[in-house]
Write a structure and sequence with these properties.
about 300 residues, alpha+beta, Immunoglobulin-like, 3-stranded antiparallel beta sheet, 7 helices
C-alpha cells in the first residue's frame, strides 16, 4: 500500500472515530421494572437520556405506539435532573406504566430522538425494551383449563314452587326495613389505625437500610409520608400530582427554616428513585434525618377542610 493510500485510510478512520465520539455525547437507554411481569401486571418503562448541558433533545416519537394487546396505565412527563457523575451533563427521564394482555417475550416499539449539536442536526433511534411476560397458569399446568360441562337434564331435581321462598324473603326485607327506620343515625364504621410516619422514621434511623432495593423503597416511603402529612395538614388531595408539581405547590406551606430541607429531600430522592443513584450510608442517614425534620415541622397545625387538587 502506498503512503498516500495509507494516509487516506488513517484520515478516514480518525474521522469515523470523531463522528462516533460526537454521537456518543447524547445517549439513551431503557430501564424496566419488573422485567418479567405477569399478564395484566403493571411494569414501569423509563427512557433515560443523557445529554450535555446546552444540547436540547426533541422526541420525534410523540408517544408509545402500542396495539390492543397493551394497556397504558400512566404516562409521566419528562423530568430533567443534573447528572450525579458529570456536572456538565443532564439526565432526562420519561416513564410509562404499561401492562401486557398477552404472555411471552414482548418488545415495545422503538423511540426516535433528534437534537442539534454544534450546528449539526442528529437523530438517535432507541430500540424498544423487552418484557418477558408470564402467563397466569397454575404450577404444573401447560394449557388453559377446559370449561365445565352442563349437567344432564335427567339428573336435575324436580322443580320446587318458589312461593314459600319469596314469602320468607318478603318477611326478611320488611324486618330489615323496620330496623333501618328505627336506626335513623347509623353508626360510623371504625377507621383502621394509621401508621405513624415518625415512628417508622425512628426505626429507619435505628437500622438504616443497606441493600439497594431497601434504600430505594425507603426513599419512596419517605417522600410519600411527607406528601400525605402535608396534604392532611392543609386539607387538600394532591395525590395525582407528580413530585415536581407537588413540591412547587407545597414548598410555600412549610416554615422558612424547613423549605431548603424539603427541596433537598425531594431532589435527592428523585435521583435515587428514578435515576438509579446509589447513595452512601452517610447520605442515606442524612436523608432520613432531613425527612424526620420535615415531618416534625408538619406535625403541628389542625387539618383543614379537604379539597381535591389535580394536575
Amino acid at each position: 500500500m502506498s503512503r498516500r493510500a495509507l494516509a487516506a485510510a488513517l484520515l478516514a478512520a480518525l474521522a469515523g472515530a470523531a463522528a462516533a465520539q460526537e454521537a456518543a455525547r447524547v445517549e439513551a437507554r431503557w430501564v424496566v421494572e419488573p422485567r418479567n411481569p405477569a399478564v395484566g401486571q403493571p411494569a414501569t418503562c423509563t427512557l433515560v437520556v443523557g445529554r450535555p448541558r446546552g444540547v436540547e433533545v426533541q422526541e420525534r416519537t410523540a408517544d408509545l405506539d402500542l396495539d390492543d394487546s397493551w394497556v397504558v396505565l400512566d404516562a409521566r412527563r419528562p423530568v430533567a435532573l443534573p447528572d450525579p457523575v458529570d456536572e456538565g451533563r443532564v439526565v432526562v427521564r420519561r416513564s410509562w406504566e404499561v401492562a401486557s394482555l398477552e404472555p411471552g417475550l414482548r418488545e415495545l416499539p422503538a423511540f426516535e430522538l433528534e437534537y442539534v449539536d454544534e450546528g449539526v442536526a442528529r437523530r438517535l433511534r432507541v430500540r424498544g425494551p423487552e418484557l418477558d411476560v408470564r402467563g397466569v397458569l397454575a404450577e404444573g399446568e401447560d394449557a388453559p383449563r377446559p370449561l365445565r360441562g352442563y349437567r344432564d337434564v335427567d339428573s336435575l331435581p324436580e322443580p320446587v314452587s318458589p312461593w314459600p321462598g319469596l314469602a320468607g324473603l318478603a318477611v326478611l326485607v320488611a324486618a330489615a326495613g323496620a330496623l333501618a327506620w328505627r336506626r335513623r343515625r347509623p353508626r360510623r364504621p371504625a377507621e383502621a389505625p394509621r401508621e405513624d410516619p415518625l415512628a417508622w422514621v425512628a426505626e429507619l434511623e435505628a437500622r438504616p437500610p443497606e441493600a439497594p432495593e431497601a434504600v430505594r423503597d425507603a426513599h419512596y416511603r419517605l417522600t410519600r409520608a411527607v406528601r400525605e402529612r402535608a396534604d392532611e395538614r392543609r386539607g387538600v388531595a394532591r395525590a395525582a400530582l407528580t413530585d415536581d408539581e407537588w413540591l412547587a405547590a407545597a414548598v410555600a406551606e412549610v416554615a422558612d427554616e424547613r423549605r431548603e430541607d424539603l427541596r433537598r429531600l425531594f431532589e435527592g430522592a428523585a435521583r435515587v428513585k428514578y435515576g438509579g443513584e446509589r447513595p452512601t450510608p452517610y447520605a442515606v442517614r442524612e436523608t432520613i434525618g432531613r425527612g424526620r425534620a420535615v415531618l416534625e415541622a408538619l406535625a403541628g397545625g389542625p387539618p383543614g377542610e379537604r379539597r381535591e387538587v389535580r394536575s
